[in-house]
Specification:
heterodimer; A: about 180 residues; alpha+beta; PH-domain like; 2 domains; 4-stranded antiparallel β-sheet; 7 strands; B: about 500 residues; 4 domains; 7-stranded antiparallel β-sheet; 20 strands; about 45% helix
């Protein structure tokens, strides 16, 4: 393979490759958590909509059911996308950075070097708690798009990674 | 200033003029929030007031006087002082608060003066700091010498703690500054003429609509219809009427932008010191800003067709301010020539002078993909409307959107250029004008590669580089290049010993 950047200070071929990493998958239970959250949220909105239209006088029947049908279709579509998207989601902790990959249709790989982390925290929602799962949020100074949020980690595991990150940060500052 | 002479050790108040400024701020706030109510009160002043109205007016008046009292007390309870390399501000009437700003976290200082400040010959000092809470503090009214003393003091202390003791500490004291750019009146007019007048026209239209809605909502529909009957010119019914209205709008927009430019950038002076830039400008409201070179994350300079004729750029310097808030501070300087842009680049970024940029273009799939959304889709929608309603006026957008979008996207794709040097990234983009972005790789906070299903089939990818001063996106490059870029930037970030902030 020929060199891509001719004037780089070192041969790019010899750099560690982000693309050749094997990703750690998320906990299997996270798929259930994700789908459960999706269905509960969407069905609640559908329910409120239906109650509202029945209370409104003369709300046309065809409009109510076509909106509800469209909503149901979108819900099924999201379910399928999340189901297959689950396998794509994965993270990797390298020597100097944290990577997270997601997205079925639009696949995104975000890499945050440890030295650029502002702070990190472990978060847990109501449903996640029932399954013993947690999510790890890593914030940088680059705005919300540059942050990483890894869901579907076992709670101890999320804590472990967060501990590791803060130890790294402390070690870097001492240098 | 000698080192043993330490000012601001004792808590002190602002200048007495602060009372007037507090009252002024208070009145402005009232007027902004309640002008429709005041308008109604004016309109109805002839009518006999009902008891209910007297009660509400009384309440409003009482509320007003009460807040006035609060703002006066607020002055007497506002103290600032310096202790242990921290700026400490104590304030509050009911709940007392104490804000500590460590010097090392202070990013920027701004000295600002509005008309009232100038009449009272005081200045307001705005202090920005990095951090998630209390990222901005304003000391509203200081005498100029005091503000400058504080300003110099903070910067000196910052530098002393930043440089190693003994090495460069001898150079303390005000740094010599050289003038990079100054706008004379002729330059200012040139800058004003080449501003984006269409944007101003948009703001004017938005502002007028907002005003109309609020007024119509407050004084009632009938009264409003009476008023609008008096100005039939604003509701044209012929084609020429619309043309006249558009011309009038453009003339107003032109004059407004010109006046705004002159008032904003009057007597603009842009200085360079050893490790900072400073900017002074303004006719009625004067402001002075200072930014440290090492906090600069990204520099952008752009022209438009008019500016290009005159060889002018608008230069903006982006730096990191309080990452979590997402509000990014930048200094923006219109009317720079190429030489001044180069000056700023060379002195902000070491080694950018003489850096060789290797350039890469983007794939033609960029326009093929986006044309579907910005060309084909609107075209189909308007075509559908045309067919459905049989109205020929939909024909123009039905054909116009696809054609214009095709031309625009194609030109954008052909002109987009990514430049990679050993330590810097640069992009050039734009259709009517050109916009240049330059950033040192080690300032990058995170890198992401995105591939849509369309890009995956064609081995293409979009790279986004996030810095604390703004993002840089490189769309539709070959996957191999995207990955190499990601790996290389990450290597630069992770091996760099330099502080990004």
């Amino acid at each position: 393979m020929d060199s891509i950047f001719t004037n780089a200070q070192l041969p790019v071929e010899e750099l560690p490759r982000a693309a050749s990493v094997t990703y750690e998958p998320l906990a299997r239970a996270y798929l259930n958590v994700d789908l459960l959250g999706l269905w509960l949220g969407r069905l609640a909105i559908l329910f409120i909509f239906l109650v509202y239209t029945y209370l409104t006088k003369d709300f046309p029947d065809w409009l109510r059911w076509s909106i509800a049908g469209l909503w149901g279709f979108l819900l099924l579509a999201s379910t399928v996308i999340r189901y297959f998207g689950f396998k794509i989601k994965g993270y990797a902790v390298r020597q100097h950075d944290l990577m997270y990959r997601r997205g079925l249709l639009f696949r995104t790989l975000t890499v945050v070097p440890f030295s650029r982390i502002q702070h990190s925290e472990v978060q847990q929602g109501v449903i996640e708690r029932q399954f013993g799962l947690a999510r790890l949020a890593v914030y940088t100074a680059g705005g919300s798009q540059s942050d990483i949020m890894i869901p579907g980690l076992k709670q101890e595991q999320a804590e472990q990674i967060r501990q590791f990150l803060s130890q790294k940060l402390a070690a870097d500052e001492e240098e | 200033m000698r080192k043993n002479e330490q000012p601001f050790q004792v808590p002190q108040r602002q200048s007495e003029a602060a009372i007037i400024i507090f009252i002024y701020n208070f009145l402005v706030r009232i007027l902004r929030g309640a002008w429709p109510i005041l308008l109604v009160l004016l309109f109805r002043s002839g009518d006999e007031q009902s008891r209910w109205e007297i009660l509400t007016n009384g309440l409003v008046l009482f509320g007003g006087l009460f807040s006035l009292g609060v703002s006066i007390v607020a002055y007497y309870r506002y103290f600032y002082h310096v202790k242990d390399e921290q700026l400490i501000i104590q304030q509050g009437v009911f709940n007392r608060s104490r804000t500590k700003l460590p010097f090392e976290r202070i990013q920027n200082l701004h000295i600002e003066q509005n008309v009232l400040h100038r009449l009272l010959s005081v200045v307001s000092l705005r202090i920005e700091s990095a951090g998630s809470t209390g990222s901005e503090v304003t000391i509203d009214a200081l005498k100029r010498p005091e503000a400058e003393l504080l300003w110099d003091y903070i910067f000196e202390q910052k530098e002393e703690s930043a440089t190693e003791p003994g090495s460069e500490a001898a150079t303390a004291g005000p740094q010599p500054s050289s003038l990079v750019l100054q706008l004379r009146l002729a330059d200012l007019l040139r800058v004003g003429v080449t501003q984006n007048h269409l944007a101003t026209a948009g703001v004017i239209v938005g502002g007028v609509f907002g005003f109309v809605f609020t007024v119509a909502g407050t004084i009632g529909k009938e009264a409003w219809e009476k008023i609008s009957e008096l100005s039939p010119r604003l509701q044209p019914d012929t084609f020429m009427g619309y043309v006249n209205l558009a011309v009038a709008l453009f003339v107003v927009a032109f004059v407004v932008t010109l006046l705004r430019t002159v008032s904003r950038y009057y007597q603009l002076r842009f200085y360079e010191q050893r490790d900072a830039f400073s900017l002074h400008a303004g006719l009625l409201n004067r402001r002075e800003a200072r930014m440290q070179k090492r906090k600069i994350q990204l520099v952008r300079w752009a022209d438009n067709p008019l500016r290009r004729l005159l060889g002018l750029y608008r230069l903006s310097i982006h730096q990191a301010v309080s990452g979590r808030v997402g509000r990014r501070e930048n200094i923006s300087i219109p009317g720079c020539r190429q030489a001044q842009v180069d000056d700023v680049l060379h002195s902000s970024f070491e080694g950018v002078k003489g850096a060789a940029f290797e350039t890469h273009g983007i794939s033609k799939h960029y326009y093929l993909w986006f044309w579907r959304f910005y060309g084909l889709l609107p075209g189909l929608i308007f075509g559908g409307l045309w067919w459905f309603f049989g109205e020929p006026r939909f024909a123009l957008p039905a054909f116009g959107f696809p054609i214009l979008a095709l031309i625009y996207l194609r030109v954008y794709q052909q002109r987009f250029q990514l430049g990679v040097s050993a330590a810097y990234l640069r992009t050039v983009r734009g259709v009517l004008g050109r916009s240049y972005d330059l950033l040192p790789m080690y300032k990058v906070q995170s890198v992401s590669i995105t591939q849509s299903f369309y890009q995956r089939r064609r081995q293409l990818a979009t790279v986004q580089l996030f810095t604390a001063g703004g993002d840089l996106a490189v769309p539709f490059v070959p996957l191999r290049l995207a990955r190499a870029l990601q790996d290389y930037v990450l290597y630069q970030v992770e091996s760099s010993q330099e502080e990004w902030m």
